[in-house]
Amino acid sequence: MAFRQALQLAACGLAGGSAAVLFSAVAVGKPRAGGDAEPRVVEPPAWAGAARPGPGVWDPNWDRREPLSLVNLRKRNLESGEEELTSRLDHCKAKATRHIFLIRHSQYHVDASLEKDRTLTPLGREQAELTGLRLASLGLKFNKIVHSSMTRAVETTDIISKHLPGVCKVSTDLLREGAPIEPDPPVSHWKPEAVQYYEDGARIEAAFRNYIHRADAKQQEDSYEIFICHANVIRYIVCRALQFPPEGWLRLSLNNGSITHLVVRPDGRVALRALGDTGFMPPDKISRS
User: Fold this and answer.
1) Same-domain check for residues 222 and 268
2) Would you state the pLDDT for residue 77?
């Protein structure tokens, strides 16, 4: 029987707000005689470290913030023993839960030749208004809005933020749209050059590492953060956060202006509460362009 091996990814922590990460695409094996396909042979990139035990096995230190991994056991004082170790571990433990809302930009003019001219359509502006109203209706104290620097994401952010007065906005290039990793199965209508996966994939992986992780140990209260970006970026982030095979990102579909809700617990466990929710929009306002 044909089978495939999931790409093993192990996240490494980032020291700053961005990083250049070496990223490799997955090649699909050629069919053998008899119709079966050769199994995938995946060479993990150098930054991946040791492979996880296998598909379906949760890596509790996926964000490199597991307390035991942050304590230098070699410097442990043998006289104080377990009490000191317990104290140091408690100092490194996250105490708060992070609620991460990933918003896809609204419908935009896809035929414009220049990125700056790919502005929102009239329907797109309506969608952003509806998304802003929905977020405001949740009654949450949002901490910040981080958004892609692309025109359609900036315009979507400007409309949504009117419904969330006082919430600061931060622009970043890390969340710009791109090709995160070669999808499996491949699609015939979208085939970027290999170099695009290499360049965009490194940037989008850096965005994941920089923004998706458990709360800092100093954070005392639960946080509610909004990230306004693009379908490919959101789909890849969801797969990585749930430790699903990341090359399956294109199997997910997201409407314009949709809300995806990830929860990262203090112990590092991740839950997906909503994926591409547009139930708050009338049917005639829903699109996926």
Assistant:
1) yes
2) 56
What is the largest distance, in Å, between two alpha-carbon atoms of the chain?
70
pTM (global) more than 0.90: no
Q: Exposed, middle or buried: residue 94 (CB in 10 Å: 0-12, 13-18, 19+)?
A: buried
Q: Scanning the structure block, which residue is given the tokens 């997906």? A: 272
Residue 11 belongs to a domain: no
Query: What is d(CA 156, CA 104) in angstroms, rounded to the nearest whole number?
Result: 9
For the segment 114-137, what is each residue's pLDDT rounded down to a tens digit? 999 999 999 999 999 999 999 999
Give the domain extent around 89. Answer: 60-93
Q: Number of helices (H) and strands (E), helices first, in the chain?
A: 6, 6
Q: Looking at the domain assignment, is residue 19 inside a domain?
A: no
Tell me if 20 is assigned to some domain: no
CATH classification of the domain holding 279? 3.40.50.1240
Query: What three-state secondary structure class fits 120?
Result: strand
CB 250 within 8 A of CB 229: no
Specify whether 103 is located in the same domain as 210: yes
Name the amino acid, one letter, at 155.
Answer: E
Where are the strands (E) in the chain, listed by range? 98-104, 144-148, 168-172, 223-229, 259-264, 270-277
